[in-house]
Amino acid sequence: MGVSPAVAGASCTRGADLNVALTFRSAREMPTPPCGVGAAKVKQLSLPKVFITRPLPPQAVERIATRCDWKMNPEDLALEPIQLADACREVEGLVASGVRVGEELLGQAPRLRVIANVGVGYDNIDVTACTRRRIVVTNTPDVLTETTADLAFALLMAVARRLVESDRYVREGHWHYWQWACLWGADIYGKTLGVYGLGRIGQAVARRARGFSMRVLYHDLVRATPAQEQELGAQFVDRETLLREADFLSLHVPLTPETHHLINARELAMMKPAAFLINAARGKVVDEAALVEALKSRQIAGAGLDVFEEEPHIHPELLALPNVVLTPHVGSATTETRLAMAMLAAENLLAALEGRRPPNPVNPEVYV
Ligand code: DGY
Prior knowledge:
Blueprint (H helix, E strand, L loop, with lengths): L4 H4 L30 H6 L4 E4 L5 H8 L3 E4 L8 H8 L4 E4 L6 H5 L6 E4 L9 H6 L3 E3 L6 H16 L2 H9 L20 E5 L3 H11 L4 E5 L6 H7 L1 E3 L2 H7 L2 E4 L13 H6 L5 E4 L8 H9 L5 E4 L10 H5 L3 E3 L8 H19 L15
Parallel strand pairs: 1-2, 1-3, 3-4, 4-5, 6-7, 6-9, 7-8, 9-10, 10-11, 11-12
Helix pairs in contact: 3-15, 7-9
């Protein structure tokens, strides 16, 4: 079955009224017959109740509906805390996308047993509080690695070659004749890529850089094995060397108290004036005000940003700067990847609800 565009979330729109005071639906009400081993048998029993915070592709909803009673926010829109609390009151499972889950919500969801986050980053969830309550939290790693790396590399290329400016220049009718000095950008081929955080996505970006004959430097808390370094053609350096030598600094660290404002005025001052900063990780890893100053004063050459400190609000001066390419947190936003994420979240949810260990627990200690 194809994903209907309305559900696939092809655009970012704000809807009018939210109606999450829905009643739970069960497999019996699905438009297509549920599949899955034992579905008919399970339907006889009382099924766990699940709330889905954003419209997921129908395949994922159908999968959940084989084993659960479910309700779903029909709008691709963040719920107000009070709406979310209301929707979670009776549920044992929460499929979380674009919501914050903290103590307050947990206190109002006494039956909750699993939070299946649709995303690899889970800084939106108070995992410690969940662990205390023995609620398993899961995420969706791997399935989005390559897609997110594609976006990071796309930002790198777009800002270096001034693609957005060039597009605007043509559309606005400024292109009257070929010019020698038109929209010069920066070379990518043969330059130095600095990967800050050599996890899955950082590694995937490093692999892309090899195709551009780039020199790849990286820094991480834990050094990769010699075999990994060799495979990636990546050289471990200290933090300062990374900042000083990178022509493109690409961030791939999770947001933690330690990585908050990892890149601030001090770090930006160490970068080359010709360097570009790429962030497809988390907005709060960069001090956005300091970045604006560095971009305005041309302390660095430009930035490609998919994430921001206070999404969806963006520092107003960033919007006015020509040497920045901005995208609305779409690192994993392809049809294939979003479906894979939703299906993986569904598997994590069902496993946990059925007392099996889910494929991707982020707090496995709840099983000890
Ligand atoms: C992720 O998977 O962490 C994406 O950034 C979506 O939040």
